[in-house]
Amino acid sequence: MVRIAGVDVPDRKRAHVALRSIYGIGPTMAAEILEKADLDPSFPPRMNELSEGQVDRLREIIDREYLTEGDLRREVNQNIRRLIEIGSYRGLRHRRGLPVNGQRTRTNARSRKGPRRTVAGRGRRTGGKK
């Protein structure tokens, strides 16, 4: 396996797909990187078909020009901490573990809120008026 930016990149995948296994590199950025490394982005070779020089060029471009992995994770985390510290609305939503970008929470939002917790006194009342 080829190691780029501290990540073992899969050998048997094409270069533009394999580069996406690095945190912070998506489809557009992978194509940009291949173009800068003088590799054909329309039909990129597999990672194990690249020469050592080409892999070094990819590694150098990613390290020099792009924020990836630990540095990017740290920056994102610092941005969230800053929002929480200044007490902004988005920071409060982060602190409470609720959706941040205006999504509804009456239904859905289960991935942010976690599994359902039943609340006493909810539901249909029996007995009542006639």
Task: Describe it.
The protein has two domains: 2-66, Helicase, Ruva Protein, domain 3 (Orthogonal Bundle); 70-113, Irregular (30s ribosomal protein s13, domain 2). α4 crosses α5 (89-96). The chain is built from six helices and two strands; from the N terminus they run ββαααααα. 45% of the residues lie in helices and 5% in strands. The model has no long low-confidence stretch (mean pLDDT 89). β1 and β2 (7-9) form a beta hairpin. By secondary structure, the chain is mostly helical. Strands 1-2 form a two-stranded antiparallel sheet. The termini are far apart.
Brief synopsis:
With 130 residues, the protein is mainly alpha-helical.
Secondary structure blueprint with pairings:
Layout: E1 2-4, E2 7-9, H1 15-18, H2 27-36, H3 52-65, H4 69-86, H5 89-96, H6 110-113
Antiparallel strand pairs: 1-2
Helix pairs in contact: 4-5
